[in-house]
Amino acid sequence: MSRVTLKKEVEVTAYLFGENHRASYGIVVLHEIWGVNYTIRALAQELADFLSCKVLVPDLFGGKVARHISEATRIRSLLDWSQVVSDIGIAVRFLRDRHHCRSVGVVGFSLGGALALTAAAAVNGVDCCVCFYGIPPRQLCDIRKISVPVQLHFGEKDQAKGFTDLDEALRLEEELKVAGINHEFYVYPKAGHGFMSRPDQYDIELADSIKQRILEQYDPDSRHIAFQRMISFLMRHFDTV
After folding, report:
1. CA dihedral defined by 211, 213, 215, 219, rounded to 10 degrees?
2. Which fold has domain 2-237?
3. What is the pLDDT of residues 178-207, one digit of tens each?
4. Which residues contact 183 (CB under 8 A, 6 or more apart)?
5. What is the DSSP string of the chain?
6. Is 110 exposed, middle or buried (0-12, 13-18, 19+ CB in 10 A)?
């Protein structure tokens, strides 16, 4: 892993994984509400190693990492969403221009999942999108403007009411159907919110109550199936020649 600067005018920090991999495709990974902590770095490294490609994690929180939910929601409340979307675009262009990636996918988790869908609708250069348990507000993302294939994963036991609970997930799928968006939609009966975070990848500095809540919604079988589905989806939509 290496730390890189994506632009000079206003510094955007990102973390690059698999920098020596030579695949013709790359992935931008968008972090959860906790910021770029150990958990998201472990996920990014796992993706880079499995696909032998470059994976870039832009730090959308400007170096801030939350340990408690109150701290995380405060940081999120201060975000300039238009700047966040712009930063994601810069990350996509960085992989294309600096590392010659002919295809770039965006993968996001929770807050990052919502932003991944937003990027699929609003960022040039995105070839496909994988969203894990994240739904953007309508004022941020016009679902009808998504023009790339998307894959979505939700846990049936998701307790994030009004954000990614089952009712909200099914509502989103119906909107995608009505809009004619090319999409795959999966619900995992044994999983809750954050089920892609393995217990051995939990950030040790997260509050114990948060780690316990994530653990209660984790299901290893669901994670394994979702990971394999994600890999298959990305490889189908990347230009790998």
Report:
1. -150
2. Rossmann fold (3.40.50)
3. 999 999 999 999 999 999 999 999 988 888
4. 149, 150, 151, 152, 173, 176
5. -EEEE--TTTT-EEEEE-TT---SEEEEEE--TT-S-HHHHHHHHHHHHHHTSEEEEE-TTTT---SSHHHHHHHHHT--HHHHHHHHHHHHHHHHHHH--SEEEEEEETHHHHHHHHHHHH-TT--EEEEES----TTT--GGG--S-EEEEEETT---TTTTSHHHHHHHHHHHHHHT--EEEEEETT--TTTTS-GGGS-TTS-HHHHHHHHHH--HHHHHHHHHHHHHHHHHHS---
6. buried
Dihedral through CA 113, CA 119, CA 125, CA 130, nearest 10? 20
**pTM of this structure:** 0.94
Which of 103, 132, 98, 95 is closest to 116 using CA atoms? 132
Domain range summary for the chain, segments of one domain joined by +: 2-237
Note the pLDDT tens digit of each residue in 50-100.
999 999 999 999 999 999 999 999 999 999 999 999 999 999 999 999 999
Residue identified by tokens 């507000």 is 137
Angle between helices 220-237 and 38-51 (to 10 degrees): 50
Proportion of the chain above pLDDT 70, given as a percent: 95
Q: Is 37:203 a contact under the CB 8 Å cutoff?
A: yes
